[in-house]
């Protein structure tokens, strides 16, 4: 045992010293070099049966403890990797089979045995610190949002009955707020499953990786309307979960699609139609092969009077039409006689892709009313026959909101493809990329623009539906961004309500490109502090060391480090601090609830001559090698992961947070979610995990959120952010929950559990409703 232990310690010491020296040369911590020497000295002393081996290792444990506390304080999740292996090996050395043979015999024959007390004390001290740190969370922000009502009769957007959910964010304002109050903080823990419906649309072997189920159901009358990843539309009885009808759009499969998903359908009731007549009420289904289909809401039959026999072809007017590169994953908005829609354009595929044009069509006939092309923004009259929209202009793949009284529709815009290459962008592209724009509903003319990133080289699309509410009587818009800023603007003018300033940004783009000297940042931000060597993580000191080396090898100068040939660290990454799930607001109390997520990504430009030919079975993805056909560089992208496939940055990776929008102050920020479904063993450790999806708030003071990569729907106290209840889901809940009531007054909470391709949660096809016991 002594010899085995000596060899083990020597191997560990050589590894730590060698790789630690590499880290030190790169400018990182010297701890691992010193740790390697400590292991080597211990190994030599063990091989000679010297009792001083235990003393040396005891000193090393105490030094490691001091170093770890200096780096991260009493944060158990960061102390554990630093000390876990060290303490386990200390306990190993205390085993009688190791300890007793150590020592020496004097010339007089007296045997001096090794004392385990110094090492035992060091181990006990470290364990005590570990146990104490488990009771602490230095990164938690505890607080309470005000519970006083600031506006007892707030504008909710439209005339939606309290028990219904008519649009993606419930109303045209996108608040994700329900005035129902049957479920409260006092009784939400009693929620039970009421019904479960399975769509039958499951992930297929030939699907692209990003096959995800992100839909938020609509509830009109006594019916729920949903879509599925492969673009089926389904009507479900709201009280029983029984299917009423199903329509398959037959959108087919295409390996070049980066996304195979549907976030929702749109509902329209024709006030001029005779009651009971065909297509008097309609459901509009966007598809992944760039169509918009009108269906009779009563029976799912195609409304042939709309567009081309019920189908609007969204690729009309595009100069280039590569199959699979353009589609609509988000529901259009309908206001007056107009249905307004954008489209997703594949990131980093080609310099010859479809346009990001926003178009308004006649909701009854499908005739084009206006088009706003960010590459040609001044001409909004319908595109003449034979002309084309601007190739690769910034697009909007997320959800719009609108204010009918102001006559404005609010569009979150993305970037021009290729996203990481800024050469040759036009003046208009530079102006509108990664911005929120307000367009006139009737003409499509620009009323204002607020840019959130200048000369975007990071795919920092504005990903989320802008949320509208009145803050202290002022018409406001809350715009969440990937970089963590929340823009709180006067929605009439786009001027900030909460201040926005410009801060210096890193320079040093590739010679063909440039960077903006400054970048905007809102005073209300969840942008994280810059990463350092100390923030690197792993389940052990070994993969943590590997992550530290990887960190030091990447180019990183903080937020907005430009992409580079050697590889750059992008943090926050393009997964976003906020994404399409947006945030939820309580318009009465003027509060916000959201889920900031923190994952670093890497971005490495690849010269054209180093990009291999496309593989026969290669499928579309936003991660890995993105080819940028026609551009001088492709880009290699992905999350910053360690050797074991877990994030290199220390947790938490996900929070829930509450903000008082009247003051712009964040009241609380708590770790959200466990590693239960991230590890081979179902461990319920509340680390704070990544997620994608959106929250919902009710008047009962409860916020609901799935989204996290463990498969649960959770309920939180809106005032404190504390978890009140959770329901186990059969698959990933990366969608936004909603709530409604039926004719008998019963309130239900519904979430779709179908999983998410890029975050690796379990796929499925379930729609689950919860309610209080009767």
User: Nearest-angstrom radius of gyration?
Assistant: 29 Å
Query: Sheet bearing the most strands, described?
Result: 5 strands, mixed
β-strand percent reads 25-35%
Quaternary structure of the protein: single chain
- Choose one word for the global shape: globular
| Helical residues, percent | 10-25%
Number of strands: 42
Which secondary-structure class do the elements indicate? alpha+beta
Q: Mean pLDDT, rounded to whole units?
A: 95
Number of helices: 8
In short:
The protein has 774 residues and is α+β, with helices and mostly antiparallel strands. The chain is built from 8 helices and 42 strands.
Please tell me about this protein's structure.
This protein is an alpha+beta fold. Helices cover 16% and strands 26% of the residues. The strands form twelve sheets. Strands 3-36-37-38-39 form a five-stranded mixed sheet, with no helix packed on it. β17 and β18 form a beta hairpin. α1 runs parallel beside α8 (541-553), α2 runs antiparallel to α3 and α3 (52-72) packs parallel to α6. The chain is globular and about 110 Å long. The termini are far apart. The mean pLDDT is 95.
